[in-house]
Structures are given as structure tokens and as C-alpha cells.
Amino acid sequence: MSERPWWQHAVIYEIYPRSFQDTNGDGVGDLSGILERVDYLAWLGVDAVWICPFYPSPMADFGYDVADYVGIDPLFGTLDDFDRLAEALHRRGIRIILDFVPNHTSDKHPWFAEARSSRDSPKRDWYIWRDAHPGGGAPNNWQSFPVGSAWEFDEATGQYYCHSFLATQPDLNWRNQSVRAAMYDVLRFWLDRGVDGFRVDVLWHLIKDAQFRDDPPNPHFRDKDPPHLRLLPLHSADQPEVLPIIAEMRQVLNGYPGERLLIGEIYLPLERLVAYYGPNLTGAHLPFNFNLMWVDWRPAPILRLIRDYEAALPLGAWPSWVLGNHDQRRVASRLGPAQDRVAMMLLMTLRGTPTLYYGDELGLKDVPIQQHEMRDPFGLVVPGQGRDPERTSMPWDESQNGGFTTGRPWLPLGKDHPAISVDVQKRDPGSMLNLTRALLALRRREPSLSLGDWEPLAVEGDALAYTRTAGGRRFIIVLNLDTAPKAVGFDRDLAGAIELSTHPGRVGERISTRIELRGDEGVIIKPT
Ligand code: GLC
Ligand code: CA
User: Fold this and answer.
1) Fewest CB within 10 A of the end CB: N or C in the chain?
2) Angle at CA of residue 351, ends 347 and 354, nearest 5°
3) The domain at 453-527 falls in which architecture?
4) What is the pLDDT of residues 149-192, one digit of tens each?
5) Residue ranges matching CATH 2.60.40.1180 in the chain
6) In angstroms, what is the span from residue 193 Cα to ligand 2's centroid?
7) What ligand has the least distance to the C-alpha of 25?
8) C-alpha span between 269 and 340 (Å, rounded)
9) Rounded Cα distance, 197 and 48, in Å
């Protein structure tokens, strides 16, 4: 195990810092709050934390609009708080991964202020400026996320600037060498402070078509789809010239000891996603693979997804699996609380590096947010696109605000928060939290579960079954994705025993040629 880089056998835990732990009663989580919970992270058994942006920001997109890449927003604390947190994590053997947001800055970033001050500004070309279309209006038809033209007119200088997201998030011009140099200095600033890696925000967006051609219409668009799907982003994203830039980022990281990790946030189909490993693996170590979040939750489609992904991976590339993040509905809400446990067992027994979203270890669900409590700008402009429900605070205990804050939480907690809180679940041996912890512990003990080969296992009965094998040790995983009980038959005598089940009371049970699975039950079997 020690010959493999740490991030191949690691479990990554995503923290949305606004919602993890507040320490000063303002209702918003902070870095000192994460520090207070470091013991919990060690108890849970995660290997690395990725913390969403905490840099100075007007918070138009809650930190994904950065006004200073090398500071800490006072809302979250100070650089000293950051150093204390990094030190405390490292002392417990937990790595720290930052969120790097290179595609766009805040419109309040001094670079943009300077760029928009005049057409002759030395920083003008740090952003993407175009004249109006000859026929008037925006330079081309590119769309922003969540809605509207990707071009905003700047009255003072009479040109449009490009923004892939909100108009308050102008896109940097990554074709400009000074932008690259400045951003690589940002990486060095944090690497020098000891960070172990970066999750790079919207990595596939950095480079746009040099000729600014219109995007073609999406022939599959249906009226009920979100507006940004109207066009195919053929020219506005995923350009080949992004790969050398990622290789340059890797070069910066490679200059530091200890395998600093580069993760890419990339929402693309499998065959395009794997291009981000780069030629000869010079790209991202881990392009995030989000496909488990939309796969049809039945054995056959999931098996097909795993096989297609494994087959698409370039030689030597390491897989990534994700079940949830701060932009998507919570897995417990998508699949329900019973199947959620099976999903966790799947995530922790697949080949590759799993990323776990804070609260998913509790089975935290989306919290319904009333219109007047909505905070996410995406939800305010496009109804239904709001990401507040999956960003609510961590319920630590049974007290009124779940121990998250002594003030008023920035988003309400769910009504069920006492019952699913960390304190309550810690005391219940059959809880989702203790199941997650047991899965993490088993995965850490058994390299076959993290590093081992993955192979599908043909079974009788509609279950998802596969094996994980390394160094002569092998585990068999059998998952019932259905609420109805299932009898699953094997074509030979497994001669094994249940090592772990999503349901209490089965550990040690002998298995030979068949197993009766309860509804929503998953088991890990160890040959004996
Ligand atoms: C990424 C982030 C998301 C943010 C967007 C724009 O997708 O995960 O939260 O709104 O980038 O920065
Ligand atoms: Ca606070």
C-alpha cells in the first residue's frame, strides 16, 4: 500500500465551511469551527478534507467569486486560523485540499477593477473582452449558468466581458501568460503553507474557442430542461488547449514533495471526462467522476457504468467516485434513507478514490427551503435550481440548532435534525454514521477494497455483485438495490462469511452458494 501515492487509497471528505461549525454565533461556519471538529474527522476515519472556498469574497456565489486568492474572508477567520487548522489536521494524519477557482474572479477583484478601468489598462487582457456583434448585441450566443447570455456590457468602456456563471463572476483569460503566472503563484502560496492539493473549480471551462464561434442548438433540449441546456457548449468550453494548462498546474505541484493532488471538477460525458487525465497522465490526478449521481439506480445500468468507466480510463489512470456535493441533491433524498446505506457501501467498495460530502455519513437529507429563506443566487434567478437544500448545517447534537451555532443558522436545519445528529447516531451501533465509519475502517484495513482489482460477479437474482482482489485477498460485495428481499445465488461455493452488512446482526454468518438479502441490504463477504 505504501508504494501507492496516498490519494489512491484515501477517502476524501468535502466540507462546505459555511455549514460545518460556527464558533462566533454569527450563524455561519468558520475555520475555527472546522478546527473544533478535527477530532470528529479523525474518529470518522477520513484521510483528507477538501474545504470549499474561504477566500475574501462578496459572496455573490458564496465564495466561488474570489476577490483575493491569497487571503481568508473575515467571515471564516484569519490566515492564523488557517495555519492552526492545517497543523491540527496534519497532526492527525489528515491531508488538506483547497478549492482553487481559476475560471473566474469576483467583479470586485482588484484585477477586474483595473481591467475594466480602461481599454488600455495593462490588465485589460486578463479578462475576455469583445466588441458588440456587428448586428448589435452580445458578441455571440454563448449562455451562462444558470441563465442568460454569457456576455455583460460594460458601459464605461463600451465592450462586453465574458462570464460563464454570474455577471459578478467575470472569466479570466487563460490564453494570457501573465494570468497563468499569477495563478500559478497562487498555487505556490498555498503549497508553501503546506496544503496537500487542490480541487479545481469548473476545470473544463478555462479555455474558450479562439474564434468565438456560436454554440449550436441542442437537438435534445426539452422545454422542461433548465435554460443553460438550450445550446451545446461546443465552443464555449472543453477546448483541447486546456490540457497543456492543466499540465502546467501539475508541474507546479510536482515541484513540491509528497504527491500534491490535483482534482478537477468536470461535468462531461465519460469519453470526454477521461481526456482530463491528460496525455501520458500529465493532467489531473483525479477528474471527478459524477456519474453515480445520475445513473439509473438498478444493477444493470450501474454495472454498465462501472465497466464503461473502467474501460475508458487511460492506462495507469486512477478512478474517482462521487455520490454527492454542494451543487447536487443529497443522496439520501435521491435514493431514500434505506437505499442510502447501500449506496455508501457501494461508494466505499469501488476501485478508486471516493469523495464523501459532509453530512452524507449521517444520511442527511435535502432540507426544504421556503422562498423567503432561499440564499443561493442560482435558485433566486431560476426556480428549482437552488442549491440551499443540500447546503444546510451539520447537525451535531439534539439542541435547538444542532450544536452548529449559538446564533441564527444561515439556513434552517431540517426538522429531523435531533434524531440524525452525530451525538445520537454515535450511540446507536446500527446507525448510518456507524456503518459509514465501519466501512471506512474496513477499507483502510483491507487494501483490496481500495486498491484491488474490480470484477463483476455473475449471480442469479437481480443484485449488484462484484469482487475486489489484491495480493491474494478477496472480498465479495452483494448489494440489493431494491426494497423487496432477494435470494441471490452464486455459481460456486463461496465458502465465506459476512464481514459487514448494512443491517445489524449478520456479521459472521456463513455463506456458501446463496444468500437471502433483505430489502435494501448490502453485504461484504470474506472468503474463509
Ligand atoms: C462550481 C462550484 C459551484 C459554483 C460554480 C461557479 O460548479 O461547485 O458551486 O457555483 O462552480 O464557480
Ligand atoms: Ca461564524
Assistant:
1) C
2) 40
3) Sandwich (2.60)
4) 999 999 999 999 999 999 999 999 999 999 999 999 999 999 99
5) 453-527
6) 23
7) 2
8) 25
9) 10
Give yes or no for a contact between 425 and 432, defined as CB atoms under 8 angstroms apart: yes
Instruction: State the cell numbers at 523.
Output: 453485504
DSSP calls for 299-327: HHHHHHHHHHHHHHSPTT---EEES--TT
Task: Name the residue at shortest CA distance from atom 4 of ligand 1.
Answer: 64
Q: Which residues in the chain are classed under CATH 3.90.400.10?
A: 110-162
Q: Is the pTM of this model over 0.85?
A: yes
Query: At residue 1, does pLDDT exceed 70?
Result: no
| Most informative mutation of 64, 99, 169 for ligand 1 (most atoms within 8 A of CB) | 64
Instruction: Tell me the CATH number for domain 110-162.
Output: 3.90.400.10
Domain with CATH 3.20.20.80 in the chain: 6-104+177-440
pLDDT digits (tens, 9 = 90+) for 6-50: 999 999 999 999 999 999 999 999 999 999 999 999 999 999 999
Kindly report, residue by residue over 503-515, the tens digit of the pLDDT: 988 999 999 999 9
**CA neighbor of 139 nearest in space, from 214, 205, 236, 210:** 214
CATH homologous superfamily of 6-104+177-440: Glycosidases (3.20.20.80)
Instruction: Enumerate the active-site residues.
Output: 201, 265
